[in-house]
Amino acid sequence: MLVGRSLGLLLLPVCCALTVLPGAAQSAPAAQPAAPATQPSASATTRSGGDQQPFTIGVTVRRVVLDVVVTDSSHNAVHGLSRNDFAVLEDNKIQPMQSFEEFNFDATKPFTPPRLPPMPPNTYLNLPAGEERGPLYVIVYDVVHMEAEDQTAARRQLADFLAKKPEGARFCLFLMGQDVRLLQGFTTDRNLLLQAFDTHRGEGNYIPVVSLMGANLGAADTAMPYEVMAYIGRYLEGLPGRKVLVWLSSKFPEDVPLFGLTARIADEQIGGLAPATVGGSLGGPPVDTFGAFTGSNAQTFPGTSPASAAQGFGGSDQTTMVDSYSQKLMRDAIDALTEADVAVYPVDVAGAKPNLNGMDDQADHIALVTGGKAFYNTNDFVDAINQATQDGGSYYEISYAPTNADYDARVRRIRVEMDKKGYHLEYRRYYFADAPDTPVTKDEKKAALEVADVQAAHKQGDMLFAYMQHGAPAAHQIIFRAQFHAGPKAQATKAQMDALAQQPAYFAAGKASKVPKNLAVQTYTVDFLVPDRMVGALNGEKELEFAATAYDAEGKMVNGISQKASEDEGDATKPAAYFRAEQTLDVPADAAWLRVAVRDAATNRIGTLEIPLPLTPEGSAQQQAAR
After folding, report:
1. Which of 93, 101, 163, 385 is the most buried (most CB within 10 A)?
2. Which of 224-233, 238-247, 598-607, 612-621 has the lowest mean pLDDT?
């Protein structure tokens, strides 16, 4: 089973350059890589007229962001509540709220598609083509843990849902089979999502009609789903806002313990018993059994009495069990999902059955600790995914500054209370107080050591790195035009080969591997054009960062660059209409995707677009649609 773990770097090869067009902007010489994002750029300028350069003081402020889904007894979202209706407790201590905001999936703003003039070939604007609403939705089709008899109905109903998915909802689709593969990046386009069912796309690149290879692909591997969850959490980390992970499967091979929760609280929150001391609802059952009461959910909790000690990982808290390797992987998964603000919504595709198969417990627990909801004992998967979409898109976002500011890696238990009765609450129940940017697991420490001396512009977790990943959602905070040109194919030079060897597609075990011999490359030129008035409105210094990244057909980065440029003030009486820059990137000739971005370094606002390769031949009138 291959679950790729990126080293989390956007590397800066020397075979790329940022050239500034006359009268538009200035930058460091092309041979010099851009400064890391955490440092002031060497090309920064000032409009004050003084000799001092502008500077930024970075301050880390600790905040816990909590998404709370509130539904009534009919599973309908409850709107119109205020911050005074909620109380947030951490380790039984009231926490002062810093912010409170309601998000309503159904409350959409009118959208008028932009009317654009015809564009030349290979020229794109990153304007949205339609409305975009709600959080980011990720669907994992887990064929490894899906029984053969369940797959036909699951495949058909998933296609039915995607064909009628809510307008403007952004979905991406992963297949968990021989490896974990992104079948379709984030899009609002139903037709693009349905292409994942095209059996002509090549083995492993579509949702199979039926797969009988589950046993050979690791169905008995109890840690596999949590490894994949950790991978998806890292993929989403840095993207703003809530994310919803809909997991389609017949089973989870191992239960996630309710770390940080006592047996009594677990029984109240999953079993649905009325809490005696809260004065309201602790959340109710984060599960829809469609009429079937399991009655056994709390029994899988390892505690033996209501006073049972809370569970932990690796000494992070008292424990009644020995921390196993799989439990450490579970913590890695929960940490990754928490960092990325992901709630898990498992859907059991085994359908209605007289005897529940055990996924009810596992699904309940992973939904509970991440703030999601589980669905099982139903033959209507379309309705289940629709409910997950609606539940995940209507919520209250609450942030607070913890009164316990110690980074001691221990469990922090979260509880949300309401005075109003009759509501069900879904929210994540705990987090680990790990110091920011500190590697926790052995794998994270090993990865940090491997790249300690590698020069990088961005690392996993920052916004530009997240938005530059293949299949990431398009960003429209900065609108720009990009025109692409491809040079002739030629055999890579030694300098090009050395630079490409450092990229993830040719990177193994922390050491540069050999690039294929006789590798053909093309030099791509990207002409960026950003409206000057937009830059001025975002950042008076008019300093922008430009990035370009190429990917192969499997979604691995084969080359990338990130560089900053600042506008030349020139004649103040003749301000430029556009901020313009030209960037070049050496790309293997068989690359499949090219993604570019413009970022305002001061405000962190970003615009991105991604296009398929190869480009339309020069001189052709054929148009391509940017994805």
Report:
1. 385
2. 612-621
- What is the residue extent of each domain of the chain? 9-58+442-612, 133-394
Distance of CA 572 to the CA centre of its chain: 42
> Alpha helices, DSSP H only, in 451-574?
463-467, 494-500, 532-538
- Whether the CB-CB separation of 391 and 373 falls below 8 Å is answered with yes
- Which amino acid is present at 236? L
| Structure tokens that stand for 384 in this block | 């289940």
The CA distance from 456 to 561, in Å, is 9
Number of H helices, E strands in the chain: 12, 30
What are the start-end ranges of the H helices in 240-343? Answer: 263-271, 325-339
Report how far residue 225's alpha carbon sits from residue 337's, in angstroms, rounded to the nearest whole number. Answer: 13
Q: Which residue has the higher pLDDT, 196 or 60?
A: 196
The one-letter amino acid code at 398 reads I
Tell me if 586 sits within 8 A of 496, measured CB to CB.
Answer: yes
Asked if the bond preceding 614 is cis, omega within 30° of 0, the reply is: yes
* Cβ contacts of 374 within 8 Å, gap of 6 or more: 286, 287, 288, 345, 346, 347, 348, 360, 363, 364, 366, 367
Q: b/e string for 31-58 if b means 16 or more Cβ within 10 A?
A: eebbbebeeebebbbeeeeeeeeeeeee
Task: Give 257's pLDDT tier (boundaries 50, 70, 90).
Answer: low
Q: Give the class (CATH, top level) of 133-394.
A: alpha beta
- Cβ-based neighbours of 451, under 8 Å, separated by 6 or more: 7, 8, 9, 510
pLDDT in tens, 597-617: 999 877 888 999 999 999 988
pLDDT band (50, 70, 90) for residue 242: very high
Q: How far apart are CA 243 and CA 388, in angstroms?
A: 11
With a pLDDT cut of 90, the percent of the chain lying above it is 40
pLDDT at 29 over 80: no
Report how far residue 35's alpha carbon sits from residue 12's, in angstroms, rounded to the nearest whole number: 10
Q: Could you tell me which residue, 232 or 263, shows the higher pLDDT? A: 232
What's the whole-model pTM score? 0.81
DSSP β-bridge partners for residue 136:
170, 243
Q: How far is CA 237 from CA 138, 465, 474, in A?
A: 13, 9, 15
pLDDT at 359 over 80: no
Residues ≥6 apart with Cβ < 8 Å to 26: 20, 43, 45, 565, 566, 567, 568
